[in-house]
């Protein structure tokens, strides 16, 4: 009887645990898609564009077995998941792992902590993420609630860049020639190009709604190089979360969302029964502008009558900087029980300060395909990142020398008028694989200074392994004596990807309490490809609970090893 009872108890415990553990199978291979009246072969997951959605609860653990059945290697990153003490499964190629080779598989263990709401996953090799991506939905924990009216339903909305061509080949050709990659041929909503591009076979995304119901839109900007405005005609949007953290609710006619960012938005179907456009259009304040296309979807009431009217789409102009600032400046942390307790490092806490300039640059072009003596490059603090052939995490953990150095500059090597007229300024950058290194528990302040070098413009900067407090924003050159007085240390947003404005700066703060190697980079893929990135290494603490987990035995082998 005792043995029977123990057996039943053990089985019950396993069943309870298994409810919080999820398993997914990703089969990554080439498939054909026809858009813009053209058929293109893309690398995708489970033959779908976008890829399959992961849907779990807060605090769960997820195992994803990734099978590479395609023609080239890649990795996958779980964007916005902190992976506490677990950098081995974060995913960026040659940062935390070597790529998954064709004909092999690799199972990721994804450990959720305080993330809540909408995140996403995507390939993190070359430009493969253009077609290898999908949503990562984190519902409230069992028996927990939303800090806003419970929606009747939710809808994932993924904003995408569409190219007629293979994404990897597009960037490979551009890098070999030393030129900028071409702009997108179209934009898509959930894989649909809408009705504005002139191809009669293109499809339009349709979201069907019931009158007076509340819907939670889970909006993900998976575009390659474009920040996007989003709107639904005649409907008010209520922003409730960004980057898997709840924000103070506010109403708006549109949102502006950067590549890498996610936003949760409520919309009430409270208008006359009919069909209404949802639409996206890029935002840009750069001299290197994206294609100014409007892509449409349909917000359709059941039992509707009547057609659509394209002239009613109320999107800002592509270069409307005021519209961008008016939106992002409304985002604030909200003190609700579903959020982690606010913990902004105070002025007296800060013991690591970094002032990092963001620039596009040039470097000598030395390939036979070069179209000129110089090639496009990009940098942080004038260091253009060089990807190694052995992942930095392995090199750091095993003390392998010659892979990276621990001397990323905490300040610009040269101070100049970063936001002035730089027409005749030397744009050449240095190269290196140089890491930022801090101690476990350090209170970090990072000021990102956008420069006018190259095309200038804004940059969406993403830090892996952390959510950080966005405490400040300003125009011109950052002044370390006067600008900190403008910081918001009361309710700054807790995010993982920040919009650093053209000819301006943003300030971030966080406690470095996640040991490991974490990538930081611009989420414009062309800039990341040119070297606008670095790594943050957080040393182990003094206990097991403050130290990295040991590596799994199944890590993909590096090429040539």
TrEMBL record:
Binds 4 Cu cations per monomer. It is found in: Secreted, Extracellular space, Apoplast. The keyword Oxidoreductase applies. Its cofactor is Cu cation. Keywords: Apoplast, Copper, Glycoprotein, Lignin degradation, Metal-binding, Oxidoreductase, Repeat, Secreted, Signal. PANTHER family: LACCASE (PTHR11709:SF410), MULTI-COPPER OXIDASE (PTHR11709). This is Laccase.
């Amino acid at each position: 009887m005792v043995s029977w009872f123990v057996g039943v108890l053990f089985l019950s415990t396993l069943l309870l645990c298994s409810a919080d553990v999820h398993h997914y199978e990703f089969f990554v291979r080439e498939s054909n898609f026809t858009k813009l009246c053209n058929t293109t072969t893309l690398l995708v997951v489970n033959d779908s564009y976008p890829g399959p959605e992961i849907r779990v609860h807060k605090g769960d653990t997820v195992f994803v077995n990734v099978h590479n059945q395609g023609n080239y290697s890649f990795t996958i990153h779980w964007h916005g998941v902190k992976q506490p003490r677990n950098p081995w499964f974060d995913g960026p190629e040659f940062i935390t792992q070597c790529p998954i080779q064709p004909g092999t598989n690799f199972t990721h263990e994804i450990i959720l902590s305080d993330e809540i709401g909408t995140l996403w996953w995507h390939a993190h090799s070359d430009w493969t993420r253009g077609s290898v991506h999908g949503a990562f939905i984190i519902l409230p924990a069992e028996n927990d609630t939303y800090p806003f009216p419970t929606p009747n339903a939710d809808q994932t909305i993924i904003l995408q860049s569409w190219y007629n061509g293979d994404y990897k080949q597009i960037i490979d050709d551009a890098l070999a020639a030393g030129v900028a990659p071409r702009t997108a041929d179209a934009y898509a909503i959930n894989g649909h190009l809408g009705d504005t591009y002139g191809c009669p076979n293109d499809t339009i995304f349709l979201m069907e709604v019931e009158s007076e119901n509340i819907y939670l839109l889970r909006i993900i900007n998976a575009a390659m190089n474009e920040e996007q405005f989003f709107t639904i005609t005649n409907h008010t949007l209520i922003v409730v979360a960004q980057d898997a953290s709840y924000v103070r609710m506010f109403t708006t006619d549109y949102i502006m969302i950067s590549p890498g960012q996610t936003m949760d938005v409520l919309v009430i179907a409270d208008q006359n029964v009919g069909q209404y456009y949802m639409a996206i259009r890029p935002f840009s304040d750069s001299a290197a502008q994206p294609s100014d296309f409007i892509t449409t979807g349909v917000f359709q009431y059941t039992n509707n009558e009547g057609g659509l009217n394209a002239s009613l789409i109320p999107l800002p102009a592509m270069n409307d900087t005021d519209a961008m600032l008016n939106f992002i400046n409304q985002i604030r942390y909200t003190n609700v029980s579903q959020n982690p307790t606010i913990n902004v490092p105070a002025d007296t806490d800060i013991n690591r300060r970094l002032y990092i300039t963001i620039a596009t640059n040039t470097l000598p072009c030395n390939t036979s395909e070069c179209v000129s003596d110089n090639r496009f490059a990009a940098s942080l603090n004038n260091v253009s990142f060089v990807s190694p052939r052995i992942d930095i995490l392995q090199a750091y953990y095993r003390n392998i020398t010659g892979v990276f150095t621990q001397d990323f500059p905490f300040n610009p090597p040269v101070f100049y008028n970063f936001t002035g007229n730089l027409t005749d300024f030397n744009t050449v950058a240095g190269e290196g694989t140089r890491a930022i290194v801090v101690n476990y528990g350090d209170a970090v302040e990072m000021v990102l200074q956008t420069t006018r070098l190259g095309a200038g413009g804004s940059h969406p900067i993403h830090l892996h392994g952390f959510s950080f407090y966005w405490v400040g924003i300003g125009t011109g050159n950052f002044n370390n004596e006067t600008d900190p007085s403008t910081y918001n240390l009361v309710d700054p947003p807790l995010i993982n990807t920040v919009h650093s404005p053209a000819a301006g700066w943003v300030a971030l703060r966080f406690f470095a309490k996640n040991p490991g190697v974490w990538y930081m980079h611009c989420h414009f893929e062309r800039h990341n490809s040119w070297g606008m990135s670095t790594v943050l290494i957080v040393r182990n603490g003094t206990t097991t609970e403050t130290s990295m987990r040991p590596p799994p035995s199944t890590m993909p082998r590096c090429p040539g090893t």
